[in-house]
Amino acid sequence: MMKIDVLTLFPEMFAGVFGHSILKKAAEKGAVDYNVVNFRDYADNKHQTVDDYPYGGGAGMVLKPQPIFDAAADLKSKSPESSPRIILLCPQGERYNQKKAEELADEEHLIFICGHYEGYDERIRKYLITDEISIGDYVLTGGELGAMVVIDSVVRLLPGVLGSEESHIQDSFSTGLLEHPHYTRPAEFRGMQVPEVLLSGNHRLIEEWRVKESLRRTFTRRPDLLKDADLSKDQEKWLAEIAKQQE
Questions:
Q1: Which of 123, 155, 187 corresponds to the end of one domain?
Q2: Which of 65, 74, 85, 91 is catalytic?
Q3: Residue 118 annotated in active site
Q4: Per-residue pLDDT of the chain in tens (247 residues, 90 and over written 9)
Q5: Does residue 162 form part of some domain?
Q6: Catalytic annotation on 217?
Q7: Which of 109, 168, 192, 245 could be cross-linked to 84 through a Cys-Cys bond (beta carbons 3.0 to 4.6 Å apart)?
């Protein structure tokens, strides 16, 4: 079972996310255990202050190191057998992607730190965390939404969480390419037809169509992904044909 701890000033934000859909089912199946903690409870002053003015002046408030260090230490002491990854959500962090999700899904214990205000005391970055993650080049009001995104993408990869293990293997980015288009019943809807090959029952041709469409979608929408893609000879040939068609 994976253990996920979240340090936040707004624990109530996670109730809806962890209490519904796949994330709820994952907990019910015993694949993951969620624990959301308000790190204000660890503040060592009577007013439970977790932030202060930055040294040197400037706008905004900075999260103090003490509550977060003590909260993380307490969580680690409750699982002494594990060596948790401690993840800071921050726009300055490593750009998050599917490869990172797969890496984190192999861990037994993850601790997420969600900040607010102007930023974190730098000693949190230097001496406490193991990973600093950004979900994109934009700024949110806090790290909670970023943590939810990362947790969702990790938990769905855990064994037994999805109905079929192939579900996430074929996802966009898992293969290095964007996923092929999908269709379902009816075969004709308001004059719009499902591609004939998908109705043929010929599994070899269907798989070939899916690979080609995956290449086509990646070429037109995210050509940057093709730079590092490990393509077979057939895929390289099909990609060349697609590129020529786009000229």
A1: 155
A2: 91
A3: yes
A4: 999 999 999 999 999 999 999 999 999 999 999 999 999 999 999 999 999 999 999 888 999 999 999 999 999 999 999 899 999 999 999 999 999 999 999 999 999 999 887 789 999 999 999 999 999 999 999 999 999 999 999 999 999 999 766 555 556 566 789 999 999 999 999 999 999 999 999 999 999 999 999 999 999 999 999 998 999 999 999 999 999 999 8
A5: no
A6: no
A7: 109
What global pTM score does this model have?
0.88
Nearest CA-CA partner of 65 in 49, 80, 76: 49
Burial of 207 (0-12, 13-18, 19+ CB in 10 A): exposed
H-only helix segments in the chain: 15-18, 21-28, 65-78, 98-104, 122-127, 144-155, 166-169, 203-221, 233-246
Is residue 165 one of the residues assigned to a domain?
no
Catalytic status, residue 52:
no
